[in-house]
Design brief:
The chain has 240 residues and is α/β, with parallel strands linked by helices. The protein has 6 helices and 10 strands; from the N terminus they run βββαβαββαββαβαβα. The strands form 3 sheets. It has a 6-stranded mixed β-sheet with strand order 4-3-7-10-8-9, sandwiched between helices. α1 crosses α6 (216-231). It is globular, with a radius of gyration of 17 Å. It binds zinc ion (ZN).
Length: 240
């Protein structure tokens, strides 16, 4: 989209698109989704299911605030884990990694170890919840996806600098190309209970966009134009 087609800069201070609450976090915060006027959508964009990846929220918010009213075609969740975001923690208020709390056939109660940067060791433990979908944030997201029936989900994370798409979808390849990031169909370690594993079992296309280890301003410059195209249906979901 050209700069002229976007919201004037003076009006980018708040998000004006319609939104609704799709659930409540453990601490009682609203789980919010921005929706197209027609309330149906092919694409769901999800940021910050990991609360320590707040740059994903800021970058997606910037794109949303640039987009004129009435032009949103995707459902946008700026933060799937608000309690974690406020705490600066990857997990939710109970220390659960929500991205290991999905009801997959291989969900495991074993602790999950994570790393934040590509070259770190994976040595910090979180729990996966007391059961699959034990957490209100997970259940609310599942109910929203059941209602919206999207064809694709783009889940933003940081900072492993890649596009991970086990289904090797057309959308994933285009995103990797546009973002100039490596395209992976295998992240290199098992992820039982992850949203990606869940989506694969549902035959739902989930693309994980791992932002780069870069400043917030660099991330905005690189990714806002791409997210604007994603929000306005300018990506093809399937090859023609
Ligand atoms: Zn993450």
């Amino acid at each position: 989209m050209t700069e002229q087609a976007l919201v004037p800069r003076r009006d980018r201070g708040e998000i004006r698109h319609p939104h609704e609450t799709y659930g409540t976090s453990i601490d009682g915060l609203p789980l919010t989704v921005y929706l197209p006027d027609e309330k149906r959508t092919d694409v769901v964009i999800l940021a910050a299911i990991h609360g320590d990846e707040s740059e994903t929220t800021v970058v997606v918010s910037e794109a949303l605030r640039c987009l004129p009213m009435g032009e949103l075609r995707a459902a946008v969740i700026l933060c799937g884990n608000p309690d974690g975001l406020l705490r600066g923690t990857r997990g939710n208020a109970r220390g659960v990694d929500l991205n290991r709390n999905f009801p997959t056939s291989n969900w495991s109660a074993d602790p999950v170890f994570y790393k934040s940067r590509a070259n770190d060791a994976r040595d910090i433990a979180l729990t996966t919840g007391s059961a699959p979908a034990s957490e209100p944030e997970t259940r609310a997201l599942l109910a929203l996806l059941e209602r919206l029936q999207p064809r694709a989900i783009v889940s933003l994370h940081s900072a492993l600098a890649c596009v991970d798409d086990s289904g090797a979808s057309h959308l994933g390849k285009q995103l990797a190309d546009r973002c100039a990031l490596p395209f992976l169909t295998e992240i290199g370690y098992p992820t039982p209970g992850s949203m990606g594993t869940w989506a694969g079992e549902q035959k739902l296309n989930l693309v994980t966009l791992e932002l780069e280890d870069a400043s917030l301003y660099t991330l905005k410059d690189r990714h806002v134009p791409i997210l604007l195209d994603l929000m306005t249906d300018r990506f093809e979901l399937e090859a023609r």
